[in-house]
Amino acid sequence: MHPQNPQDEMIAYCKENSVLPEAWSPLIQGQAFKRELLLELAEKYKVSVAQLCIRFIVQKGAVPIPKSANPDRIRNNADVFGFEISDEDMEKIASLRVYGRIGDPPSVPRTHQVVGF
């Protein structure tokens, strides 16, 4: 799950079944920093693009799992509870839909079928 693949059906299914979903790579492996809408909204809320994407995931009801080895970025990524994205802006972010999975490099063989939402 990430801004380009919000997985609304999966979130609804998880909520109905008392499952807390995880969002791996919520920054779209760095692609989020190239999306004009995300840059504009980050400026509007006076936060980083990373914080905006992570907050988007939190407000969708999932646990974001961003990766960083940089202590400053780790702290920044955790500082997402001082603002709330409006419903209108949540819809704008969700409209970035591309429905692509992130994190399946070609060098990793597929040993199973990917099923789901």
Summarize the structure.
This protein has five helices and two strands; from the N terminus they run αβααβαα. The protein has 117 residues and is mainly alpha-helical. It is globular and about 35 Å long.
What separation lies between the terminal Cα atoms? Answer: 10 Å
Please state how the strands of the largest beta sheet are arranged side by side. 1-2
What Rg do the Cα atoms give?
14 Å
Indicate the proportion of strand residues: 5-15%
Structural class: mainly alpha
Element order: H for helix, E for strand = HEHHEHH
Largest sheet: 2 strands, parallel
Describe, in plain words, how this protein is organized in 3D:
The chain is mainly α and 117 residues long. 40% of the residues lie in helices and 5% in strands. Strands 1-2 form a two-stranded parallel ribbon. Helix 2 (36-45) crosses helix 3.
Topology:
Blueprint: H1 8-16, E1 22-24, H2 36-45, H3 49-60, E2 63-65, H4 71-78, H5 87-94
Parallel strand pairs: 1-2
Helix pairs in contact: 2-3
Key words describing this protein structure:
mainly alpha; 117 residues; 5% strand; two-stranded parallel sheet
